[in-house]
Write a structure and sequence with these properties.
Chain lengths: 820, 497
């Protein structure tokens, strides 16, 4: 029995089909004499989840559709390129040198650019009044090139013209005098040149060398893991509108409006208070707009500053893919010792990571690779090192999972290596290595307290019919010569919290108006993940209204300042809680006021069904709001939340970087063609832990979408650079993300029935879901390995990611030869 | 001669005289009309965010096909109805397709959604219940990075049931009437001798115009030329569109061969090719996406001479001939002779591709076609192999083999063909030196799609697979995609739509 099972309590969900709770039912006083109110006065001081037994919820935990769904399907949702342009809006296009990945810049002849039709201005670094840097922190990302080209695609100048077409055409007319230098392109290049963008980092425990020397069974191996382009459907875009006093209003498609605000202020030499950044929605982000939206917003603002006109910068898709960073590609090398049952005794693990020309977010990304190099497995003795390599390529950045996926793939390769060598079912070896009692401390010293994997994986193993299908795959492979099948069930354990501790804070702003409508604002951004809806559900729940009564508003740095990026899966955890605190602040003023007005106890007041239940009366919220206003009760509040319990000392590599872990598992079956390397995913079963889901429909969407995105990363999505360092796959014609037919028809996704939900006091006991599912397709990759392994039992297939047909064929040939 | 284009837009006839030769439909919608529901995702016809439906009369009613607005030239829309995402809802009442997308949680970030809605709108109007295969096919050209597609598939299944009852169906007769009214017999010429958009109505006026302006760019579906405009920013001052030419999009079955007009679309040609062999049909299904096939043409695929065009290797293996015309003179030549070298075809100044003759298979002939790409749907081939074997009494008496992606042009494997004569497919020992033949025939290159090594290895694997199948192995045990048996049913059904 797992720890989780033993912690089970008898708390059960209240029946949500209860007619009293359903919409439109008129509540009578009698209902409230027997039913506990959704939010009692006692709750106000507490965070949700701490009260027990659990109350019934009207809005949270419901599969409510995305707040913008109707706008999406009618084309009425406004993205930045759809905002009505103010008269005289100018358009920008980046100018760059298409020849070199590394060069010293001589003179740049812009005369033809300036003379081209429609051109109003051409911006270079000399036009920057403040600091020519768009980095998050390190100061190493020049907005416009300064004397040197550091990667193929670096922006050297920027054209401002009367139309986007004119700007794009003019941007190609520059003549560059440059002295090329030999670029460092690959991980190997950078290792040979000892070129690092950040110092290497290492943590672990015990004496790995000694343990490995004394271990009878020892294996080593390596795997190259490719990068990934975000391919958000809406490319990078920003529009800047100049105001009085040099003020700047910037509409930016960014996951981090505060950082765009700070960057624009830095570049223009303005006070941060002079810059307002607004983000209503993004057409996808996935990490690609966490730090890398800065440059385009800052350029638009610079152009607006120089010309005095509104300026818009929208990158063409190819420019976007050429100029912006991607998921880090890495080479993982391991040396593992294990016992006869496949239990790991010691692991020595190294990651060599291509960071690109600047640091960007590479510190946090590569740390997270290390934090997830264990995935779900206990390494008694371990050493993990990460080298952050500097190359003359785009600066790699955040991408859903933030380095974690590379760690997970390395861990799964270690398990596959042991299982194949021992001739055991890999699932058996996986389970044997799970964290468990007495084996529950991670390589970075955090104790795994909330592990549900034994139970979750057991349930999935049964529901997906693993044992029978394992046998069927074996039988198929003995009979089939050309086609081979593979099956794999892999787990995921993913740490939730920013490992940069100070980012784990959020603010919200809630106004209750006198007509009972509620204005909601917070620091999180909407990129399709349903954050705005989830937070609105929290607010609606608190005030007992339907979500339609909560007005969702654009993220705006003037309303909620100093925010964290919407990243690290933390959006609902942080902003949901901040909004809840704001609501409770307002209710905390209303309840004593109403108790006095109506002469009832505070615990006889509740907010539900659009009414405020005051003793035996049900008063519409708008009447309450009006009455409070007339009695000078403040109906607006800011809320602020910071994640408790977490701390991390990076120098000593100790602490508790994660508030909790999210868990999941997937089982995938594939068929490969050993003549061509083509591969088909036949079936996928997923069981994923969202705690007590805030919105099951939204969460299932995150799981399915994350799975397919991760599957693309590991199969069809390949970034190819030529010897000169030029990215050759910079458009959807050459870079292939999954399309509809890549998703198996047999695709079964379930939420794990979590008896108590999140063990920690998260928002309504839910769990973060943005990133963890991205790693579930490790099962697809391992299933391909499994299929390949059938060619020569006992030999570990040398398959690298992504598993393109060519990569699979390379492994097939190696298996047939009997060596890599 | 008409110096305007006219199309039907949200119930109104729009007539424009100021149409630039390379103005795109997407720019017209977003910049001129201010209809921003249609999105730009990639500007090269690969992501589908800009998908709109184009309506044209077909067998007495109106047929809607999805196209990528980013690479459609505005002038090409003459005589058509343009339906965008803003047009679907009836006041506050969502179109059934939109309602299904909402109900099934089919959107997340929403940026691809307008394009997906429009693709599903065309599937809804296909008038038959859509299964997963048809839905995959419909959505192959619509990339979604958020949802993982499952909810969209569910939405499609729930609404594309074959019952068509929307406003567009109810008003179909009136729409057809208007479009027939717009369909006049005049040539279109907007501009002057230095810069123009022209859309001649007859092949004779095309021949005449092109003779006078041999420097003009001929555009059929613009699925390639569109990218010259949006990506290479090429100035194309003179554009002649082939889509209005009467008879040029005709497909005629003459018994032992099929005649394909140069401006017949992939979509129209597909069922005919499929009837020749299901492998040909499945390969056609994997050419681009629905949007690309609705616009792109077989003639264009041949005329632009790309080394990675998918139809030429198959057409060559079948022994097709291409008909060229210049002024009043025509000539025909074997297709393999048309491709001289990379970027060079046997086409004189002022000469254009008028059509193709594609022989069917004789009773003792067998075709196999394999396309290899990183992604199954809507990808450009790393290589494509097409094999036609003539077999008498279990022995190969003739082989015609052509590959794409293996050289600077689609090319025949002459040495390999020769070495295969006398081979008994069922006896691997008799396959002889065919593999060496491939090394003589091809010296492929490495690029972002595949290495030279993989290409050569796989060319052999495809030949071996063809021989194994010829010996009787069903495709169920030889392929992970493209089941000949299942595809035959799907494709032939398409013939009757």
């Amino acid at each position: 029995m797992s720890e989780t099972d033993m912690r089970k309590t008898d708390v059960s969900d209240v029946d949500l089909a209860d007619p009293v709770l359903s919409e439109g039912a008129e509540p009578s006083a009698a209902d409230f004499e027997t039913e506990p109110a959704t939010a009692s006065a006692e709750d106000v001081a507490e965070l949700p989840g701490s009260a027990s037994p659990e109350p019934a919820y009207a809005t949270v935990r419901q599969p409510i559709r995305h707040d913008s769904a109707i706008k999406h399907v009618t084309g009425a949702a406004i993205y930045i390129d759809d905002i009505r342009e103010p008269a005289g809006t100018l358009h920008l296009a980046p100018g760059w040198c298409p020849t070199y990945a590394k060069a010293k810049l001589g003179s740049v002849d812009l005369s033809e650019v300036k003379a081209a039709p429609g051109v109003v201005a051409v911006l270079t670094k000399d036009d920057v009044p403040g600091i020519n840097d768009v980095s998050s922190a390190m100061g190493d990302d020049p907005m416009l090139a300064d004397g040197e080209i550091l990667f193929w695609g670096q922006v050297v100048f920027c054209v401002v013209a009367t139309s986007r077409d004119a700007a794009r055409r003019a941007a190609r007319l520059a003549r560059f005098e440059a002295t090329p230098e030999t670029p460092l392109i690959t991980v190997e290049d950078a290792l040979t040149a000892d070129s690092h963008v950040l110092p290497e980092y290492r943590f672990g425990r015990g004496d790995v060398d000694k343990t490995l020397l004394n271990t009878q069974r020892r294996l080593s191996g390596s795997i190259a893991i490719g990068g990934q382009e975000h391919f958000y459907l809406e490319g990078q875009i920003a529009m800047a509108v100049p105001g009085e006093d040099g003020d700047m209003l910037v509409y930016s498609s960014t996951q981090h409006p505060s950082e765009v605000q700070h960057t624009v202020a830095k570049v223009l030499g303005l006070m941060e208070a002079s810059v307002v950044v607004e983000t209503r929605r993004m057409g996808g982000g996935f990490g690609g707009k966490e730090s890398q939206a800065n440059q385009w917003a800052a350029l638009a603002a610079l152009a607006a500053h120089v010309t005095g006109k509104p300026c818009k910068m929208r990158l063409d898709r190819d420019d976007d893919m050429i100029m912006t960073g991607k998921r880090h590609d890495e080479v993982a090398t391991f040396d593992v010792g294990y016992d006869a049952d496949g239990r790991i005794l010691a692991v020595d693990l190294a990651f060599d990571s291509r960071c690109g020309y600047s640091a960007d977010l590479s510190l946090g990304v590569n740390d997270r690779t290390m934090f997830h190099a264990d995935n779900a497995y206990f390494y008694p003795v371990v050493d993990i090192v990460s080298r952050r390599l500097k190359t003359n390529t785009y600066s790699n950045t955040a991408f859903r999972g933030f380095g974690g996926p590379q760690g997970v793939i390395a861990a799964e390769r270690i398990i596959d290596t042991i299982a194949i060598t021992l001739g055991r079912d890999p699932l058996e070896v996986r389970k044997r290595n799970f964290y468990g009692p007495g084996r529950d401390v991670t390589p970075y010293g955090q104790t795994v307290e909330d592990n549900v994997l034994q139970d979750l994986v057991g349930k999935l193993e049964t529901s997906c019919d693993y044992a029978r299908r394992r046998q069927a795959v074996r039988t198929f492979n003995t009979r089939s010569r050309i086609l081979k099948k593979g099956l794999a069930l892999t787990p995921i354990k993913f740490g939730i919290s920013f490992t940069l501790i100070h980012l784990n804070q959020a603010g919200a702003l809630v106004h209750l108006y006198t007509d009972g409508s509620i204005h909601l604002n917070h620091g999180g951004t909407e990129m399709g993940q349903g954050l705005f809806l989830k937070v609105a559900q929290v607010v609606a729940e608190e005030f007992g209204v339907s979500v339609d009564q909560v007005k969702i508003t654009a993220t705006n740095t003037a309303k909620v300042p100093n925010t964290a990026p919407t990243a690290a899966s933390s959006g609902s955890d942080l902003n949901g809680m901040a909004a809840l605190i704001a609501c409770r602040e307002i209710k905390g003023r209303l309840v004593p006021f109403l108790a006095g007005e109506y002469g009832v106890q505070e615990d006889q007041i509740a907010f539900r069904d659009g009414k405020v239940i005051i003793g035996n009366e049900a008063v519409p919220l708008k009447e309450v709001a009006k009455k409070a206003y007339l009695n000078r009760i403040q109906l607006s509040s800011a809320g602020y939340y910071k994640t408790p319990k977490i701390h991390w000392n990076r120098d000593k590599a100790e602490g508790r970087p994660f508030y909790y872990y999210a868990y999941g598992a997937a089982c995938s079956e594939v068929t490969i063609d050993t003549m061509t390397g083509e591969m088909r995913v036949d079936r996928v079963d997923i069981l994923h832990d969202c705690g007590k889901s805030l919105n099951p429909a939204i969460d299932i969407g995150q799981i399915e979408g994350g799975f397919v995105q991760g599957m693309g990363w590991l199969t069809t999505e390949e970034l190819v650079h030529d010897a000169q360092g030029r990215l050759r796959t910079h458009a959807p014609s050459t870079y292939k993300i999954p399309t509809c037919s890549d998703v198996p028809e047999d695709f079964r996704v379930e939420l794990y029935e979590s008896p108590e939900g999140n063990r920690e006091e998260s928002i309504f006991r839910s769990k973060a879901v943005g990133e963890p599912p991205l790693m579930l397709p490790a099962s697809v990759f391992s299933a391909i390995v499994d299929a390949l392994a059938s060619i020569r039992p006992g030999m570990v297939p040398p398959l690298d990611a992504p598993a393109t047909p060519e990569a699979i064929m390379k492994a097939v040939h190696a298996m047939r030869r009997g060596g890599a | 001669m008409r110096d305007t284009i006219r199309f039907l837009r949200a119930g109104k006839i729009v007539e424009l005289s100021d149409v630039g030769p390379t103005e795109t439909l997407l720019d017209y919608l977003r910049l001129r009309e201010g209809s921003c529901g249609t999105k730009e995702g990639c500007n090269e016809g690969d992501c589908g965010a800009c998908t709109v439906a184009v309506g044209a009369p077909h067998r007495g009613t109106i047929r809607y096909r999805p196209v990528n607005a980013c690479i459609q030239l505005l002038g090409m829309l003459d005589g058509k109805e343009i339906v965008t995402v803003e047009d679907l809802a009836d006041g506050d009442i969502l179109h059934p397709v939109q309602a299904a997308m909402v109900d099934h949680h089919g959107s997340q970030c929403g940026f691809c959604t307008p394009g997906i809605v429009m693709s599903l709108f065309t599937l809804y109007h296909a008038g038959k219940a859509a299964d997963r295969f048809a839905i995959n096919d419909c959505l192959a050209g619509n990339l979604c990075r958020c949802t993982g597609y499952r909810p969209i598939v569910d939405a499609a299944k729930s609404v594309c049931t074959g019952e068509v009852g929307d406003r567009f169906a109810r008003e179909a007769d009136a729409t057809v009437g208007i479009l027939q009214f717009l369909s006049d017999r005049q040539d279109i010429f907007i501009g002057n001798d230095k810069s123009f958009f022209a859309a001649p109505r007859t092949i004779d006026s095309l021949a005449d115009l092109y003779l006078r302006h041999p420097d003009a760019t001929l555009v059929a579906g613009a699925t390639d030329v569109g990218l010259w405009v949006t990506k290479q920013l090429r100035k194309l001052p003179k554009v002649i569109h082939l889509g209005r030419i009467l008879g040029m999009s005709q497909i005629e079955d003459i018994g032992d061969a099929i005649l394909i007009g140069a401006s017949a679309t992939f979509e129209d040609a597909m069922p005919h090719f499929s009837a020749i062999d299901p492998d040909f049909g499945e390969m056609m299904r994997r050419v681009g996406s629905k949007q690309v096939r609705a616009a792109g043409t077989v003639g264009g695929n041949v005329a632009n001479g790309s080394p990675i065009g998918d139809t030429p290797p198959v057409l060559i293996a079948l022994g097709s001939t291409v008909e060229l015309r210049k002024g009043n003179e025509s000539r025909a030549l074997p297709l393999e002779s048309f491709f001289i070298d990379y970027g060079k075809q046997d086409r004189e100044r002022g000469e254009f591709v008028a059509g193709l003759m594609v022989p069917k298979l004789a009773a003792n002939q067998h075709l196999r076609v394999y396309k290899i790409s990183k992604r199954f749907d809507q990808d450009i081939s790393a290589l494509l192999g097409a094999f036609r074997f003539t077999v008498e009494e279990g022995v190969i008496t003739e082989a015609r083999i052509a590959f794409g992606g293996m050289a600077g042009t689609p090319r025949r494997a002459y040495s390999t063909e020769e070495r295969l004569i006398g081979t008994e497919p069922s006896k691997t020992a008799s396959w002889g030196t065919a593999r060496e033949g491939l090394s003589i025939d091809f010296k492929p290159l490495s690029d972002m799609r595949a290495s030279d090594h993989y290409r050569l290895e796989t060319a052999w694997a495809l030949l071996a697979k063809a021989l194994v199948e010829l010996a009787g192995a069903p495709s169920e045990i030889t392929r992970v995609i493209g089941r000949r048996e299942a595809d035959a049913a799907f494709q032939t059904e398409a013939l009757h739509v």
